[in-house]
Amino acid sequence: MTHHDTSQSDTLAGRLVQGGSSAAGAALSATIRAVAALRPAAKPLHPDGAVVTGTLERRGSAVPSGAAWVDDPGRDEVVVRLSRAVGLPDAVPDIHGLALRVPRPAGAGDLLFASTGWGPLGRFVLTFGGGPESRPLTTLLPYRSVEGPVLLGVRATDPHVYEMSWCRPLGQWHPFAALRLSDDDAPDQAISFDPVRNQLPGLAQYAWVRLLREPSYRSARRSRRN
To answer: Dihedral through CA 116, CA 118, CA 124, CA 127, nearest 10?
Structure first.
């Protein structure tokens, strides 16, 4: 195949990915609108949750990820929201979410985690559990770093402490931080997390991820305004 043919193939593949992402994004948006119609609320998904303060101790990664926030040691005073995606009764297993806001001088960065598996395939599959500490949680979709795609995940080591790790989509996990939750409620209980708009250093959104996520977040923002 010539260079010209390869370029055309790459362009076609990019268009197919963008088209598929746009379609999937529209489907997610439609799902949120449907849930909002059945259960009018400021948050159609993850309608209820506990918002607390916490501390994130970043040790840095022994294996560089290519994302400055992951690779550089530091300490962040964070806000965390623990929630149930569907809003089922506490006695019933649900998909759990952990939302993390990291204040930064140039503006806060948000990360969203959902309960999944931990293996090469399971880390991309939503799972039900009895609580956020009962299952691993991942970002489901990768971020772009200068060294390649980065997926983030957390696992509870006790109900108030989570180990945070990163991996390549099908690679092994590399621990880099410990998240410790306090018993103190955050001042802003109505906080809204948006990883599309609020990004951390070195963790950029792929165009196809943005296409996938943006319609659903736009629907959620519209629902909160109504």
So the answer is: -20
CA 77, distance to chain mean position in Å, is 18
In DSSP terms, which residues pair with 75 in a beta bridge?
57
Which CATH superfamily hosts domain 47-204? Answer: Catalase core domain (2.40.180.10)
Average pLDDT over residues 77-90: 87
User: Cα torsion for 40, 46, 50, 52, to the nearest 10°?
Assistant: -120
On whether the CB atoms of residues 105 and 93 are closer than 8 A, the answer is no
The whole-model pTM stands at 0.77
Write b or e for each residue in 83-115: b if 16 or more Cβ atoms lie within 10 A of its Cβ, otherwise e: bbbebeeeeebbbbbbbbbbeeeeebbbbbbbb
